[in-house]
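Entry for nicotinamide-adenine-dinucleotide complex. Fields follow.
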Amino acid sequence: MIESPIRNYAALLEDKIAVVSGGGAGIGGGISRLFGSHGATVIVAEIDPERAELTVADIEAAGGRALAHVVDVRERDQVDVLAERVVADHGRVDVLVNNVGDYLKAMPFGRSDPDHWEALYAINFKHVLLMTHAFLPTMIEHHEGSIINVSSVEGMRGYPADPVYGALKAGVNHFTTCLALEVGRRGIRVNAVGPDLTQTPQVDYHAGLSEEQEKLWEVWAPVGRVGAPDDQADVVLFLASDQSRFVTGHAIPTDGGSLAGGGWYWSPDRRRWVNRPLTP
Ligand SMILES: NC(=O)c1ccc[n+]([C@@H]2O[C@H](COP(=O)([O-])OP(=O)(O)OC[C@H]3O[C@@H](n4cnc5c(N)ncnc54)[C@H](O)[C@@H]3O)[C@@H](O)[C@H]2O)c1
């Protein structure tokens, strides 16, 4: 018989060392703070020093442990220095969250150029490879690790505004799946989340909306509201922690239901779902 012992999940990351890229604001800020409150030592790997310090101060004020490390994760040299320092200071890394990403200026493929593709590649995919490559050896050495990539729901459905961005986010998801197979027997799990509709400095979902338009969230999101960084952070915490010890290789849509509802629209007038929203 397999025993099911009672477990205490009060602090899910006690004594863990966690690195969060872009951990100073938005979804990354939410992840850093939540990890801090669950006992992790959080390395806020952030390009913006002020954001990094603010997040560290918040975590410390709540009784947690955190350190700021200013880094541009698109740059290999800087990533290597980060990994060397973290391993030298803490001896290991248990959790790596590759959260940085940006749609930049979304543009149709026909009007885009190689500079745009390269900029999108650097901020959405290249750093996932650089950071993962830099931190994998210490995880392998300790036979323990959880890597979580923050991609996008746009890597799971067609993204008409910028096919290159959509393809790169899909690439992050598939890299997640493939790497999970490579490292599973070495004690390392690799998963991803695919956000949508989450209010952050990068995407202001309330910008320019009237009070009347704010009521349309029941049409725009199957859960009926805009998301917050905490909505993402809770799922990332699950994937980082031992609670998900039998889960690897997956990309979970964290999108308020937008992927599930794809092609269907809530009609407030008819109080039902329709697949042709403007038909009478
Ligand atoms: N907000 C959403 O609704 C949404 C939707 C789909 C996907 N995402 C994805 O979620 C992730 C986080 O998005 P967000 O909305 O919180 O973004 P954000 O821009 O609000 O926050 C990103 C953080 O990363 C930092 N950063 C940017 N470039 C960096 C670099 N080169 N090196 C280190 N740090 C850097 C920024 O200073 C900032 O603190 C991204 O991968 C994004 O593509 C978000």
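NOTE: The mean pLDDT is 95.
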